[in-house]
Amino acid sequence: MNMNIIQQEVEKIQEADIKVVKGILRSENFSDITKRYSEECIKIDCERFANYLEEIDRSIRETEERKNNYYVDGLVERTIIIPLGEVKFKRTRYVNKENGEYIFLLDNYIGIEIKERMTDAVKARILKEAVDTTYLKGGEKAAYNVTVTKQTTKNIIDKIDAELIKVDKPKEKKEIEYLYIDADEAHVKIQKNKEIKQVICKEIYVYEGKELESPRSKRKRLVNKWTFSGVYEENGENIRFWNEVREYIKRHYDIRKVKKIFLNGDGGTWIKEGINIFPNVVYVFDKYHLMQYINEMTSHLKDSVSDAKAELYRVLSYGEKDKLDVCIEKIYKTTKDEKRLKVISKCETFLRNNIESIKNRLNYNKEPILGCSAEGHISHDLAARMTTICRGWSISNANKMSKLRAFRNNKGDFYALIKENHKRLRKERKTEIIIKPQKERMKYITTKVKVTTDMIGKYYDL
Questions:
Q1: pTM recorded for the entire structure
Q2: Which of 93, 142, 303, 391 is the most buried (most CB within 10 A)?
């Protein structure tokens, strides 16, 4: 980079500084001054970045390797979005002497695809916002004064390999007595060929217990919670999902020291498969769903509701199937409505199929069993993003978004994810020729210019 360009950059920075000083001396609104200064600095930085890229391009053009293998075919302008904003620069297009193909050696050197509009850092900003809110708002967070479309945001997610959406934590094995696993699901609408159906996004989270958020707080939080999520529908997928959880537990806890693992769930078939994955598992029915089923069975009994509920809870707490039959028979005899009978029958089946796990829940004082908070987590982690503000997903993106929400909960690094995905995409393509710029020529980029008071003084007179 020649000295004239460096001098111009220094002068632009000085001019921006002078405007701030003048604004303060004129008693202008300070917020207006800082806004104007920020805009000036961002503009200067984008121009400087363009200068650096063009200097690298010139340096590559002068290498012997380039001269021996490629003809110069002219300059082509390009715009790339970086977190600061848009950077417009010109780079050289070359023709391969052997096969006549066109190539941009600068693009290859800095790792940007020909049709790529933004850097990985910008994609990470977009992705993080899209996971929190919507594709549209994700596009608005691209860079300063730059917005991309929601389709562009969707394209970023489409290209992410779902297998990469995970966080690797230190492999330290803790010694604890009890471990807790909660599992639940969200039903997400899927849109395909103008037909809308539902798919199940499953969520499992592992934690070590509960503690107060602060000494004076009445609210509790889960200790060292770790979240797993995704769409696992095909044969064998549930086992694969549970195996992911098992591998995490094996890496982070000494299983031999864990007395019991308490699995909280609502009786779903896929949740029960977790019983066979771990040793010393106690399956505990979710209290929220238990109350829901008992309320549905007894809501029509009017004055006898409280007595019927108390009897059901007492019988279930002892796991007495014979006495449960008697209680349910009494409820049937007081019901004549066909719709109500179907509801009772459905609830009865559920209670019978989960009588042991319900017994565990109702006798929680005998074990260090904790309440299940899965409903609240599903609402916050999945439903808030995937059912409340979106009409339909593809199965692939429903899977990725649920994984990305878990990735966010686990404090995942979105920039590292995008970089790793970019690296994998480049490996899948053919190997590109990389020509490095000349080191001697690039030394000019870091040339320091001495700024004196005389240089500043010529711009204003106090």
A1: 0.84
A2: 142
